[in-house]
Amino acid sequence: MLKQMKQSILATLVITLLTGLAYPLVMTGLSQVLFPAQAHGSLIEKDGHVVGSALIGQTFTGAGYFHPRPSATTDTDPQDATKQIPAPYNAASSTGSNASPSAKSLSSDVADRLAALTAENPNARIPVPVDLVTTSASGLDPHISPAAAEYQVPRIAAARGIPEAQLRSLVARMTSGRTFGILGEAHVNVLELNLALDQQVAQR
Amino acid sequence: MNAAGILQIVVFFVLLTALAIPLGIYMARVYQGERTFASVILGPIERGLYKLCGIKPEQEQHWTAYAFAVLAFSLIGILVMYGLMRLQALLPLNPAGEAAVAPDLAFNTAVSFATNTNWQNYGGESTMSYLTQMLGMTVHNFTSAATGMAVAIALVRGFARRSAKTIGNFYVDAIRSILYILLPLAVVFTLFLVWQGVPQNFDPYVSATTLEGASQTIAQGPVASQDAIKLLGTNGGGFFNANSAHPYENPTALANLFQIIGLLVISGGLVVAFGRMIKDGRQARALYAAMALMLVVGIGVCYWAEAAGNPAIASQGVDITASDQAPGGNMEGKEVRFGLSASAIYAAATTGTSTGAVNSMHDSFTPIGGMVPMVNLMLGEVIFGGVGAGLHGMIVFVIITVFIAGLMVGRTPEYLGKKMESKEVKLAVLSIIVFPLSVLCLGSLAVVLPIATPAIAAAGPHGLSEAVYAYASATANNGSAFGGFSGNTPYHNSALALAMLLGRFIVIIPTLAIAGALAAKKTVPPSAGTFPTHGWLFVALLISVIVVVAGLTFFPVLALGPIVEQLSLAAGTLF
């Protein structure tokens, strides 16, 4: 018994050093040599400062930018530390809504988002695609569907004073299809799309 | 449902099987102590580890000593991890300044990781330091997986041996599992994930100024190294709260495909290794077929239900049609880069195995879509199952199946030349019955005790689903959740930990006892009266037994939870 306990303790110690220390440290070293940009979080810099990560969604509210999906992330209430308040795209605390499909609150949230979208996009050419009225699983989804981008085109064209066709070709250029034509779904990275948009047309 | 979505499911199955076969052949060689191409480098390390720990590899253990070693090793792991979380504020590698973890949460988390459950009553990026994630979470991801693999191999030896007293040496089986299988695969998988975009650094959280001038704090860390082993070891505990839905943990559709394969490939490979070790590939093919069939049915139902969408959303005039331009269906709690098919495969695979990592929020699935992962838990996680745990769980169901077949034809049941007598059947029933006992008793308490019910977020039938899912997940050592359930209270931290311990050790101990009893038996050659255990008839019988055992136990709860919810939703009743 005693010998068994000793073997267990020693084995725990040795395996901890091997898998808990050597393994992550060697992996960190190798990753930073082989794939430095990804290993440090795929950060995007503009004019010398970090504007975000290519993999992490962020909030856009201006009429001249493409908007991301709704996000269910929260943050501690500065007034009352025991409470959580909505804080979309809080990249230090990822979460989904975990809303039940039969919840009244989910249905009314969707109705509110729908009303806001319709008011902001009076000239939209297509019905609202489902990803624009539902929260993502992480609350940090960096992508929208090509349909969700198309839905916003008339609003942005008006805000920036450019033809819709120019925006459509930009969206098409920035769209990634399904990987190898079968994996996942077509998507557009909102931050990269907006950066490309800023590069093409100055915001009015 | 569309062609690309269905094709994606086909590609996944072909790739999985193509990788599981060579891996299984390699694993059989490792566990039988034969030389492999990796022996040149790993052999000296292996012998060095034995020397450091005072282990004599040739000294084999009786099943009781083997079981004692499993328990001792797990207990020490729990204690170390508990201490680490309580002390993390004083230890290095804590750039975000995380405080000491509360005692009840630390206990729950230590048990959770030691039992291969990885149920998480916390958000990783807002609770755990980098050091805790490495020395606690990552280490347990290796050790709890290796423990499961060792137990499965011990059971296989029970069949392969004749009139033997011992079933192997636990430390040797566990160390070989880590050194020859888990670690090399994890190294390759980590680099693949980093290439796809998963961070691997010790940087402080990044402060970004967005294009509109707002500030955004972005969590960082050694994510990839933990992500890789969380999947390969069917652990499932995420570095971040959102787990593999977080774009840093699962950045692309390609990474997603290999994450699903990663969480199945060792369990699939173990079935192949089982066939090699008992020198009868037909037996392994029958088990593999039963597992794959149940998995494909689950994926199909889930994908169909999610593609049908949520009528409460569709009826408001939202476009839920799937096309090349939009994912459609039910996108609440799903990521655009994955869409419906890739989320359905992930949900079914992660609950068929004991992984519990998620790339979408099961709580927000349509009622029938969410019932698929719940049913997978209730079937006892034998759809490939946890690494090791899936194989030994499936073999226990095989023992029950041959017993029932034996009753029907009036002969002593046998499997692989071993007579299944009253002792083995009793032990098999014990290891199966603990699961419904824990889920139904603790689950009932969770919906009636005043101290327990505030954890339930949803009103109506969905609330029952949340509570039952939590206790099914804990007992099955899965770790996925209907995440609206707030389990971080002293009551649930304790009750869930109890469920995890029951589901782990009251299954492992009888399984090892069966292994010991079988190893001691002689082998009888098959006769005309032997019921063949490799044809389609047997596969069908095995699946029926699994479904009937789970179905009879859990159908009432499923009827009151997801089925009522689906019917209400279709009738327009919300809660």
From TrEMBL, chain A:
Annotated GO CC locations: plasma membrane
Topology of the protein relative to the lipid bilayer: Single-pass membrane protein
Region (Disordered): 66-105
Major subcellular location class: membrane
Subcellular location: Cell membrane
Pfam families: KdpC
GO molecular function term, any single one: P-type potassium transmembrane transporter activity
Keyword terms: ATP-binding, Cell membrane, Ion transport, Membrane, Nucleotide-binding, Potassium, Potassium transport, Transmembrane, Transmembrane helix, Transport
PANTHER family in alphabetical order: POTASSIUM-TRANSPORTING ATPASE C CHAIN, POTASSIUM-TRANSPORTING ATPASE KDPC SUBUNIT
Known role: Part of the high-affinity ATP-driven potassium transport (or Kdp) system, which catalyzes the hydrolysis of ATP coupled with the electrogenic transport of potassium into the cytoplasm. This subunit acts as a catalytic chaperone that increases the ATP-binding affinity of the ATP-hydrolyzing subunit KdpB by the formation of a transient KdpB/KdpC/ATP ternary complex.
Protein name: Potassium-transporting ATPase KdpC subunit
Origin species: Telmatospirillum siberiense
Underlying gene: kdpC
Automatic annotation (TrEMBL), chain B:
PANTHER family the record matches: POTASSIUM-TRANSPORTING ATPASE A CHAIN (PTHR30607), POTASSIUM-TRANSPORTING ATPASE POTASSIUM-BINDING SUBUNIT (PTHR30607:SF2)
Lineage: Bacteria, Pseudomonadati, Pseudomonadota, Alphaproteobacteria, Rhodospirillales
Complexes and interactors: The system is composed of three essential subunits: KdpA, KdpB and KdpC.
Protein name: Potassium-transporting ATPase potassium-binding subunit
One annotated GO molecular function: hydrolase activity
Organism (species): Telmatospirillum siberiense
NCBIfam families: kdpA
Family: Belongs to the KdpA family.
Secretion signal span: none
Subcellular localization: Cell membrane
Ranges that cross the membrane: 6-28, 65-85, 134-156, 177-195, 253-274, 286-306, 382-407, 427-452, 495-515, 536-559
Record keywords, A-Z: Cell membrane, Hydrolase, Ion transport, Membrane, Potassium, Potassium transport, Transmembrane, Transmembrane helix, Transport
Bilayer disposition of the protein: Multi-pass membrane protein
GO CC, any one term: plasma membrane
Physiological role: Part of the high-affinity ATP-driven potassium transport (or Kdp) system, which catalyzes the hydrolysis of ATP coupled with the electrogenic transport of potassium into the cytoplasm. This subunit binds the extracellular potassium ions and delivers the ions to the membrane domain of KdpB through an intramembrane tunnel.
The keyword Cell membrane is assigned to this record: yes
